[in-house]
Structures are given as C-alpha cells and as structure tokens.
Amino acid sequence: MIMQKKMIANHFERLSNTDKTGEKAVYTFVPGNLNELIWSFDLLPVHPEINALQSAMRKQSGDYVLEAEKIGHSEDVCTYVKSDIGMMRKGNIGPTGQRLPEPSLLLLSYTGCFTFMKWFELLKQEYKCPVVMLHVPYQADGRITPEMRFYVTKQLKDVVIPKLEEISGKKFDLDRLRTMLASSARSEDDLVHVWNAAKNKPSPIDAYFGGVYYIGPIFTAFRGKPECEEYYKTLRAEVDQRVKDGLGPITPDGKMHKEKYRLVVEGPPNWTSFREFWEMFYAEGAVCVSSTYTRVGGLYEQGFRHDPDHPLESLADYCLGCYTNRNLPSRVDIIAKDIIDFQADGFVVNSIKSCNSFSAGQLLMMKEIEKKTGRSGGFIESDLVDPRYFSAANIKNRLESYFQMLEAKS
Amino acid sequence: MSETREIVEQCKVLYEDLSLASVKEWKQRTGGRAIGFMPVYAPRELVHAAGMLPVGIMGGGENLEIIKGDAYFQSYICHIPRSTIELGVTGRLDCLDGMLFPAICDVIRNLSGMWQMLFKDKLVRYLDLPQEFTKEIGGTFYKQELQGLVHELEKLGGKKVTPEALRHSIKLFNENRRAIERLYNARAETPENLPTYELYLVMRASNVLPVEEHTALVEKYLAAAARQKRNKLDNARVVVTGAFCEQPPIALIRALEASGCYVVDDDWVLGARYLLGDVAMGEDPLQDLANAYLGDCVETASRYETRLEKGAFLIERVKRYRAEGVVFCAPSFCDPALLERPMLVEALNRANVPHTSFNYAENTSQYHVFKEQTGTFADSIKLWGTA
Ligand code: SF4
Ligand code: SF4
To answer: What is the pTM of this model?
Structure first.
C-alpha cells in the first residue's frame, strides 16, 4: 500500500510539473492500454477512468457528475464520462489535489467499450488536441483470429507509433519497448500467483475489494516499470506469508476473522461508498476469491503475457484479450470456471447503471452460470461514481438475504 | 381510399406484423432463407446475393407487450434489446435462419452473445465494422469480415455466392438507395405532400420486403404523393436526429408533425441510407462493398468521424434541406445518441441553428409533453426564427 501510494504520488507530481519540465501527457483508457509503448516514448500516461474513480473515493464525483449534467449531459449515460468532464470543467484537479496537464494526445484504445469513443470525442472538443484511434475488434466468437491480430498490429505500426513519434519528437525504440514488455511479463507472473493464492482456504486476499488495490500499478501507469515489478514481488511475498500463517484477507477494520462464504464477483465495484460496500461483505464473513472487474485490464491467468519477442503482436493480443472484449458465453465460462477452481459457494453480480459494456446481458449470464455450476447468484445494483445510485439499505438487504440463502444451502 | 393511403395502409400492415408473416410467406414462395439484422448498417447485398432475404429487426415498437423480455434486462438499459429478446423467445422470429448484430454499441454487441446462448441452432454473427477507414488497414479487415459472413451464408444456404450474384445485388440496392434519396428529396421539397408518418412507414417496409419490391413501392408512393396535392401548413422545417436505433412510436412521429413541424430529414431506418453514393460494380464486389463503407457515409454516433468536424454533417443536412431547426429525439439510456448530443448541440449553437431535445422509449404512450415541447419549438422558430 505504501509502495503504491508513493508510486502514484510521484507520477502525479510529475504530471503536475509538465509545464516546467516540458513532458507531455497522453490520455488513454485502462482496458487495452499501451502503457509500455507510451513510456517508451517518454510520454506520461493519464487514465481518465482512474481519475473518475479516485474522485468518487474522495466524494467529489457527485458534484462533477452534476456539473456535466448542468452543461447538457444526459442523466442516462456513463457517469465515468460525466465525472471526468465535470472534473475538467472544475479545473482538472487530479486525485492528489494537483492540477492535471492537458493532453498532448488522446490515445483512443477502443477496447471492450463503445463509450470510450464518445468520451474521447468529447474530450477532443474540449482540449482541441489530436486523437489517435486504435480500433480493437471484439472477440465475438470467443477467440482471437489472425485477421484481428493483424488489424490491430497494423494500426499500431502504421497509425499509433507514427503519431507517438510525432507527438514526442522521438524515434520508436523497439529495444526499449522489449525491455519494458519483459518487465511487464514478470509483474504479470507475480500477479497471477497472487490471484491463485485465493484458492487456499482461508483465502489470504479479497480478490475484489482488495483486488482493486492489487491491480493499481499494473492496470495504470506503471506496468513495464521497475517499481511495478518491485511492487508485485513484494506483494507476492506478503501473500505467500499470509498463506503460510493461515491468515485471511486484511479489511479496513483489520484482520478478517472467519471466512464464511467464498464468492466470485462480476462487475465493477461502487466507488462512492467503497468502504461501506466492502463492509457489507466482510462483516458477514464473505470473501471474494475472484472477480471479473480485476480482469478489465488483462486476463493473465489464462496464460497471456506481454512478450518481448513478439512486441506488437503481444500488445495486440493484450488489447484483444481484455475481459469486456470477450463475448458473453466466454464471460460465463470464465466465471463458471472460477467458481469451481476457487471453490466458491456462489457468485454476486454488481450491476452498474453506467456501464452497458458490463451490464447488458448480465441477467442471462447469471442463469447460465447457475446452470453450469449449480451455485446460486446474488444480484445487486449500484453505480460507479454517481452517489445517487448507491442505496445502502437496499444493497445490504439483498446481500443479507443472499447470504442467508447460502447459509441454508450449506 | 386515396392511392397514397392504400400504399401506406399496406406498409402499416407490414409494420404491425411482429410475427413476420410476410417473411414466412416469402420463404414459402421462394424456398429461400431469411436473415435478420439489427440497426444500424448491415451489408444486405451479401445476404441477398446468397439468395436470402435480409430482414431488418428494429425491436417491438409500441404494439408489443413485454412479458418475458424485462427479465433479461435491468431497468436502466434501453428498450430495444428487451423487445427484441421478447420477439425471439416468444417464437416470433423463428422464421429467421440467422441474425446479424452490427457493431453499434455495447448493448447490441452483448445482445449478440445473448443470442448465441439462447438460439444455439441459428446463425448468429456479430459484424465488426471497422473504425479505421483507410483501404489498407480498416478496408483489409472489413473485407475479411465480409468474406467471413459470405462463408457462413454459403454454408447455411449450401450455395456459392458468385461475383455476378453480388454485382446484381449491389445494382438492386443501389437502385433502392437512389429511390429512397428521391423520396427524401421530394419530402424536403413538398413536405405537405409526403407526411413523415407516411414516409416512415414506407421506409419501414424496407425491413421486410425484397429489395426490388421495396424500390417499386417507393416509386409508386412517390408518384401517388405527387398526384395527391395537400394543403401546405405554416410549419417549421426540422431535421430529426438521434433515433438511428430504437425507433420512436408512430404516434410520436404523428405528434411531432401535428405540433407544427415538417420533418425534412431524419435518421430513422438509417441503414437503408447509410451509404451516400452508389456502390461500385467492379471485378471484386466485396472490395467494392468494403470501399463504400469506408468512403462516403452518413455521420452517426456509432461511427468514428475523422473527416469532418463533429456536427458538420448535420449542419450540411440542415442547409441542404433548408431546415429551420433540429429536434434531438433519442431513446432513453442510449449512450451513443446521448453522448453525441452535447457535441452536436455545440456545433448547432456555433452555427446559430435552433434545437430542442427529448428522449423516448419505443413503447412510450404519453405524447402530450413531446407535442407541447415541439409545438413551442416550432412556434418560436416561426415567430422569431429562433428557439
Ligand atoms: S461504459 Fe463501462 S467500460 Fe465504458 S467507459 Fe463507462 S464504465 Fe467504462
Ligand atoms: S438504443 Fe442506443 S444503446 Fe440501445 S441498443 Fe440502440 S444504439 Fe444501443
């Protein structure tokens, strides 16, 4: 935690100083992010979703969303977008309280969500800066075809890299990229080890609420950097130690005592009442042993690694492989497999009002997962960053009934 | 009954026929297969060249009672997927041998996966339309997508899709697009003679009729409308935008017109007008279709716009059809349309084009609020030239 805080603080410090240092910022999205490529040009990545969720955790997103609605954004659309627009309109102050630099480029990695496109079209109007589109096809049949890989790689080569060269004023350095990809792969090994640790009983980690912290460095600005590798090495050692000591996860209230229910969770968390939400689980002895949200930035447990020997192809596969870029039957299979592999008692779907990419089809997914695993699912609804859609009493009620049902079944 | 009325009544029957009796009848008559497609754009030429009937599915509209569909979707998801699922699980789409889901938004995309799970014995294909528009990159990818679709259709139909058949289909759809363009131009010229309510039903007929029949229908309607002179009202000329997927109920379209607006352009049934020019008919028809998609097309929310400033296309339409204002009319919870709207609003403000906005659902039954809003809008345009 301390290591991660330091990494974030340094990064935002650097971002806030770009007017003095002349460094340039590239805004891009978490799913399918090309972090190593951006860093290899000495450009600084900024992820608007992370800013939005951080604003929510600091209880500012509600105002930002209202600000965006005031200037004409619909109540019905993704609140990440509105939080970001509202934040920008209110001075673009980032999560550390420092001002974020304007983007020199919007790198629209269009992976797993259509809203990304609209989001950066909107930012383009605000910042009047260049945009480069990387269109990542959808895995509609649950597999990556050679044509898809070729299409993405070709865009990287012919469109994205030349644009990054132009913005940075630097030549593309393949060796530098390779070094970073090798580093990414080592972090990815360690992260997978951490996820797999949840197969132990008790699980030493909470792979959803704790998991969102564990994915911090690798899903955001740090993948491919030495400090990221260091972070995952340390995390792995810590988790191994917890397994040896037979310990459960750490919660905001300290150690978790008894693991009563093991759950797989589908969908992003609510950020505006994150601790309260988490407490509804750990207070009941429910541990999340696996979650799909922690795969939006990469599904490493299925074997994918960034590959220095095939740099662009592996970046392409990375983009193509993100969780929300998989078709619904594949998502069902992933969850069903985790329920079995992690010996979960059941699964919970947190359906997010904002996010059609995750939410559309989840009710049918639930039925299919139940059919495949024989385990029942619980269903709750909230939003990412709009506090108006977090009804604590309602969610608590539903979860309690669900836990009672699991209890009765056991 | 007047000639136009007769044609429109015929179209209305097709519109209201949610069980696709006309498609079943076509299948029986020809022994062919039918392939459904969701909005916005699908290359119907391929389906046609495979000897099959492309059938546009645009949800259930205002006439479908949702009994099962709501159990598949949360309340904050637009209406069209639930009514489409309702049509599917109640057997109304059984006559379709397959469904195409063009890349337009996350809801339609995920609906393709739902279809894969629910209708395992049918052809289900997600059509990934490129957002990169160069011939070498996006074009290569898209041509492969088209080739993939051709293979699947050939497998299903047991017959090769030849270049000749494709060229013939392209020719028929080119003719259809030209007829539709004449229809839209005629409405813009004399909106009193081609009420939008009628034009809309004529357009909706393109979803189920074989293309040759639809072209003939458009021509027949055009001729009949030209003969039947109606009174010109002092209405405001408006372009309607935002309704490219889930369709507004017919009564809403009528309410819009009754409130004092002449609709002179719209994006309903947009797939039939998506390509702006003719598709070439060269040696490699798949390449020609791919080129047409990459080239001159409408600007719409699901297509990444690289050539123009946001809103330039809309403003060009406003000018071309001498519109006095724009009505944003978008389905509730439609991310693409609703996120697009602020950008278009900004462009219209810069160009001093008055506009108003409202949201609907395909099964909305309360129209008086819309009617009042668009009525006030039309009045203010007529009084002050602004809203
Ligand atoms: S729709 Fe979902 S995936 Fe897309 S930007 Fe919004 S929260 Fe992210
Ligand atoms: S109405 Fe909008 S959100 Fe709904 S399916 Fe159509 S395009 Fe997607």
So the answer is: 0.97
Answer yes or no: do A115 and B132 touch at CB < 8 A. Answer: no
Q: In this structure, are A182 and A154 located in the same domain?
A: no
pLDDT tens-place values along chain A, 410 residues long: 788 889 988 999 999 999 999 999 999 999 999 999 999 999 999 999 998 998 899 899 999 999 999 999 999 999 999 999 999 999 999 878 889 999 999 999 999 999 999 999 999 999 999 999 999 999 999 999 999 999 999 999 999 999 999 999 999 999 999 999 999 999 999 999 999 999 999 999 999 999 999 999 999 899 999 999 999 999 999 999 999 999 999 999 998 889 999 999 999 999 999 999 999 999 999 999 999 999 998 889 999 999 999 999 999 999 999 999 999 999 999 999 999 999 999 999 999 998 999 999 999 999 999 999 999 999 999 999 999 999 999 999 999 999 999 999 87
Q: Which two tokens stand for residue A304?
A: 């994918």
Burial class of residue A103 (count of CB atoms within 10 Å of its CB; 0-12, 13-18, 19+): buried
Q: Environment class of residue B161 by beta-carbon count within 10 Å: exposed (0-12), middle (13-18) or buried (19+)? A: buried
Domain B3-164 CATH assignment equals 3.40.50.1820: no
**Spacing, Cα A369 to ligand 1 middle (Å):** 23
Is there a contact between A71 and B339 if contact means CB atoms under 8 Å apart?
no
Which residues in chain A are contacts of B333 at CB distance < 8 A?
76
Count Cα neighbours of B119 within 13 Å in the Cβ-side half-sphere. Answer: 26
Q: Do B341 and A74 touch (CB under 8 A)?
A: yes
Round to whole Å and give the CA distance between B13 and A259.
61
Give the residue from B66, B77, B308, B360 with the most A CB atoms within 10 Å of its CB, the best one to mutate. B77
Cα B154 from Cα B50, distance rounded (Å): 7
Is residue A109 domain-shared with residue A197, that is, in the same domain? no
The domain containing residue A369 runs over which residues?
Answer: 176-409
Question: What is the Å distance from ligand 2's center to A268 Cα?
Answer: 21
